[in-house]
């Protein structure tokens, strides 16, 4: 691999007790929020409406559209709305404030990607394609799970 081929630095973050914002509350946002809750993050979700499963999660829900002030004090932000322009604006606002952002519908705009993960006890295996092909990551995750 050439140095220029490396698009992301692999890292596992300790998010216990850290504030994380998720903008959007559909299926993609739900999947991301569940992972954040499992990691111990203090999650705030901002969206005008949400899928019912959010009611089961220990998160702060703000029933409205994203405001730039929502970013204040956040460690990370996930833009997972169904509005491409809104996701772009959220990412730009986060970067202005020095907050790493994951933009669900635009890998090229992400400061970080969320890999496919396999967990078995104390072991975690992360699989990523740098956001270029999440289907390949998911397929490899399924194969590794079958082996383990």
Layout of strands and helices, then pairs:
Blueprint: E1 19-23, H1 27-38, E2 42-46, E3 60-62, E4 76-79, H2 84-96, E5 100-103, E6 116-120, E7 123-127, H3 134-147
Parallel strand pairs: 1-2, 1-4, 2-3, 4-5
Antiparallel strand pairs: 6-7
Walk me through the structure.
With 148 residues, this protein is of the alpha/beta class. The protein folds into two domains: 3-109, Rossmann fold (3-Layer(aba) Sandwich); 116-147, Double Stranded RNA Binding Domain (2-Layer Sandwich), CATH 3.30.160. It has three helices and seven strands. A five-stranded parallel sheet has the order 3-2-1-4-5, sandwiched between helices. The two termini are 28 Å apart.
Largest sheet: 5 strands, parallel
From the 3D structure, determine the CATH topology of the largest domain: Rossmann fold
CATH class of the largest domain: Alpha Beta
Q: Whole-Å distance between the termini?
A: 28 Å
Helix/strand order = EHEEEHEEEH
If you compute it from the alpha carbons, what radius of gyration comes out, rounded to the nearest whole angstrom? 15 Å
Oligomeric state: single chain
Q: Give the number of helices.
A: 3
Shape descriptor = globular
Task: Briefly note the structural class of the backbone.
Answer: alpha/beta
């Amino acid at each position: 691999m050439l140095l220029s081929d490396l698009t992301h630095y692999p890292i596992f973050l300790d998010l216990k007790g850290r504030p994380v914002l998720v903008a959007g509350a559909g299926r993609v946002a739900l999947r991301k929020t569940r992972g954040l809750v499992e990691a111990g993050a203090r999650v705030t979700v901002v969206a005008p409406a949400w899928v019912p499963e959010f009611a089961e999660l220990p998160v702060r829900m703000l029933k409205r559209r994203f405001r730039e002030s929502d970013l204040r004090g956040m460690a990370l932000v996930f833009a997972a709305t169904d509005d491409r322009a809104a996701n772009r604006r959220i990412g730009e606002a986060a970067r202005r404030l020095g907050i790493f952002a994951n933009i669900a519908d635009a890998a090229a705009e992400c400061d970080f990607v969320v890999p496919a993960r396999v967990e078995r006890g104390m072991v975690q295996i992360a699989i990523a394609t740098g956001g270029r092909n999440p289907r390949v990551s998911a397929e490899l995750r399924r194969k590794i799970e079958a082996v383990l």
